[in-house]
Amino acid sequence: MIRTIIVDDERLARNELKKLLQEFPEIEIVGEAVNAGDAIEKIADLQPELVFLDIQMPGKTGFDMLAELDRAPVIIFTTAYDEYALKAFEVNALDYLLKPIDPKRLSDAVQKLQIGEESAGGLQNEASINKSLLTENDQVFVKDGEKCWFVKLSEIRLFESVGNYAKVYFGLNKPLILKSLNALEERLDEKVFFRANRKHIINLKMIEKIEPYFNGGLLIDLKGGEKIEVSRRQTVKFKEMMSL
Predict the structure, then answer these.
(1) Structure pTM?
(2) Final residue belonging to a domain, choices 115, 130, 145
(3) pLDDT at site 132
(4) In a domain, 211, yes or no
(5) Contacts of 29 (CB under 8 A, 6+ apart)
(6) Is the dihedral angle over the CA atoms 234, 240, 242, 244 positive or is it negative?
């Protein structure tokens, strides 16, 4: 069963979607939410694997809501506004359904869900759902101005402190998120993400080269071309971890 929440400010739209979803016994609707704030609470409490998410809601949009989640479930957008279609696909949602929802399109979306579940060996690793620690397979939602992305943590090579923000390096992108490096460090798996110095957390799997540096430190080349200095104090820890 795929634990599912419907987020939509219109009661009729929620009821219509629930009726359509009765055709899919694998979808278990565990909750409904009427706005972004309500949805954030329900997602935290009910830990769904799938969310049907309206984009345009009073107050915060669906995109704003996603930006506040630590871990993003699988998202299928449902909206009456087709101008958002491109943006939804930019953020790599599973699918995008235009209201009124066509049963055939809904069936296609659920089919994608099953394919994704088989290839990933389950939509979410149950252990990772129940722990506050994020695993490298977890998907996070990053919003910077009008741009949005779903990113697997394994694709992020570097977090860099910029005041109260953190710059997130993945692919050619470097968006800013409103999170401190200390807060991120608490949530990230230390076997994968290492605090190299006061300003940087690096993905150990993205290291290309390691060389000695000043004062007993190390200089690390990442796959994106960034050169990060490991402080002398952290070098001791790094060598222990990597058995150098």
Answers:
(1) 0.74
(2) 130
(3) 67
(4) yes
(5) 4, 5, 6, 18, 21
(6) positive
User: What range does the domain containing 30 cover?
Assistant: 2-130
Q: pLDDT of 223-244, one tens digit each?
A: 999 999 999 999 999 999 887 5
Banded model confidence at residue 129, pLDDT cuts 50, 70, 90: very low
Identify the CATH number of the domain in which residue 179 sits: 2.40.50.1020
Q: What amino acid is encoded at 123 in this protein?
A: L
Selection from 7, 4, 15, 26 nearest residue 66 by Cα: 7
- How far, in Å, CA of 21 to CA of 16, rounded? 9
Q: Could you say which of 112, 130, 148 is where a domain stops?
A: 130
User: pLDDT tens digit string along 38-61?
Assistant: 999 999 999 999 999 999 999 999
In angstroms, the CA 216 to CA 231 distance is 8
Query: Tokens representing 214?
Result: 């000043």
Nearest C-alpha neighbor of 3 from the set 148, 139, 117: 117
pLDDT at 244: 52
Q: Which residues contact 208 (CB under 8 A, 6 or more apart)?
A: 221, 222, 223
Q: Is the pLDDT reported for residue 125 higher than 70?
A: no
pLDDT tens-place string over residues 141-200: 888 887 888 899 999 999 999 998 999 999 999 999 988 999 999 999 999 999 999 999
Q: What is the CATH number of the domain that holds 72?
A: 3.40.50.2300
Alpha carbon of residue 154 to chain centroid = 11
How far is 88 from 91, CA to CA, in rounded Å? Answer: 5
